[in-house]
Amino acid sequence: MSKELTLRPLEAADNPAMAQVIRTVMQEFAAVGEGYSINDPEVDALFETYDQPGSIFYVILQDEKVMGGGGIAPLLGGPEGVCELKKMYFYPAIRGLGWGKKMVEACLTAARQLGYRQCYLETIDRMTGANALYRKLGFKKLTQAMGNTGHSSCEVWYVIDL
Asked: DSSP code of 36?
């Protein structure tokens, strides 16, 4: 297997592979109970969910194998002009190679082009690498959740002005 990685928009055929990435990573971080995004119906229908106005989802491929992904969509129950960075998960093999930064930058660029003013995200403390990345890229930690995502088990929230 080569080491070449590419980032591209999600295609319908990527749904099962990206769902597997999400489930594998969420299990790795013991984020599988009530209040976690692993239980969202969109996990099995990412293409259909993000093929909507104001949304986009990207995947990272290695030799045509989905190795990770992430996207943006309007923040459910949130203020107008705020999107959410969602479902950003990578297999361990591609972590630490700069693809998290590339993914966030691609999503924030798309968010700006779509007219959003802010981007919100929520995560968990034990995803230490992700938390460090978000802070390094300028996300500001919040004291409470925004919107109504249904992810009551997430205890860390960030926002960035676009």
From this structure: S
